[in-house]
């Protein structure tokens, strides 16, 4: 937890797991994070079953597949250039980074139910509705619950404000910095920070089709995506 430190950009305190290994100077089995102080906070897009066994607690944030599709398309549409319709067809076929998005989410959902003390499963939409409550939930999960004094001092609200989309957009590092490894500006990661942005891009027919694909894939899992509710087979 970085409660007592305010880094100018989250990209300066959270390294990507797979990117760090891919850019390691040697292909040998080396610990590319040895220089980072413990405990380490890392980011990843890897499916749960591909995570190293020594990974500790995992916090997974998912979002509605329709928003995931639109967000990914807006972020990568120029490299290589492709239309939303093309991206939609690929997404529905499960041809995207790390495989079908819903299968990726399902892996962490099942892990969170099997090991609730090791995997915290969060929904982006719920986080937006109750940011303070989810900050408290995250702190509890990480073994660093807010003290009575911190609650009285308004620390929870301060953390919410610090991590808000507006604060991230206004930070100097986000406005001018970049991930040199990928050549991506920090500001590219902070767009609207809202839910249901897909409504501005997808037709009702596209949304209905994708919802049906996801519902079929998640049948019996108990996992919920917004309006898509997949009940347990036993219920």
Automatic annotation (TrEMBL):
Question: What Pfam family is a match, any one?
Answer: Sulfotransfer_1
Molecular function terms from GO = sulfotransferase activity
Q: What's in the keyword line of the UniProt record? A: Transferase
Keyword Oxidoreductase among UniProt keywords? no
Q: What residues form the membrane-spanning segments?
A: none
Which Gene3D superfamilies does the UniProt entry name for this protein?
P-loop containing nucleotide triphosphate hydrolases
Where the record annotates domain Sulfotransferase, the positions are 11-222
Protein name stated in the entry: Sulfotransferase
Supply the EC number(s).
Answer: 2.8.2.-
Name the gene for this chain.
Answer: gb12974
